[in-house]
Amino acid sequence: MNGETLHRRMDVGGVDIFYREAGPPDAPVLLLPHGYPCSSFEFRNLLPRLGDRWRLLAPDYPGMGYSDTPEHFDYSFDGYAQLLDGFVRALGVERFVLYLHDFGSPIGARLAIMRPERILAQIIQNGDIPYEDALGDKYAEIEKSWLLPEPEMRAEIGKAISEDVFREEFLNDVRPDLVPRIPPDLWKLHWSLINPRRREIAIDLIAGLKANRSWFGAH
């Protein structure tokens, strides 16, 4: 185990990106796109555990975590996929393994389709793959909001951007006996980084799940 995790910043296409890195620079690369409502913080324990054999790269998306929130950025699944492509290119990474889960799944899937020659393997775990029979009860209210006119839809989705809902995101479906093991830092940290602009970005992404369903069906 290589316990050293480095915390870095770099410019990617004019956006100041924060990322965590662990492992030897010449090791095979594992790219770790994070989920929602989260950041690279979610990989803080994984990085030192795999850092003896992998070079792990975990960036924060623009508008999330410690990365910048520029006005002129495409805050969509497509935009984030382009950002990840620019991120690995800026680091000189030619080929890599892609770990996909939660909102990182539609983002990483787009990157894999864009650059199939660069993907060594994909690891998919608990991904937000929005087929009609895959979203489950968790997304029932979101699906209802899709039937509303856009202003009402955004207002309804906005109700889910709260500290209580963030807490539920980390604790839902967790066995009661395991709940005490989950630190409140997870939702407290990420809620503290929300501001009005980032709240609108989160609404955009959740609203984009509807179009994302069609995208997955076509690919």
Layout of SSEs?
Blueprint: E1 5-12, E2 15-22, E3 29-31, H1 46-50, E4 55-59, H2 77-90, E5 96-102, H3 104-114, E6 119-127, H4 140-145, H5 150-158, H6 163-171, H7 185-192, H8 196-207, H9 209-218
Parallel strand pairs: 3-4, 3-5, 5-6
Antiparallel strand pairs: 1-2, 2-4
Helix pairs in contact: 2-3, 5-8, 6-7
In whole angstroms, the N-to-C terminal distance is: 38 Å
> Quick one: CATH class?
Alpha Beta
Give the strand tally. Answer: 6
Separate helix tally: 9
Considering DSSP H and I runs of 4 or more, what fraction of the residues is helical? 25-40%
The chain-level mean pLDDT equals 91
Run of helices and strands: EEEHEHEHEHHHHHH
Could you provide a short overview of the structure?
38% of the residues lie in helices and 18% in strands. It is α/β, with parallel strands linked by helices.
Describe this structure in words.
38% of the residues lie in helices and 18% in strands. The protein is an alpha/beta fold and 219 residues long. The protein has a single domain, classed as Rossmann fold (3-Layer(aba) Sandwich), CATH 3.40.50. A six-stranded mixed beta sheet has the order 1-2-4-3-5-6. Helix 2 packs across helix 3 (104-114), helix 5 (150-158) crosses helix 8 and helix 6 (163-171) runs antiparallel to helix 7. The protein is globular and about 50 Å long. It starts with a strand and ends with a helix.
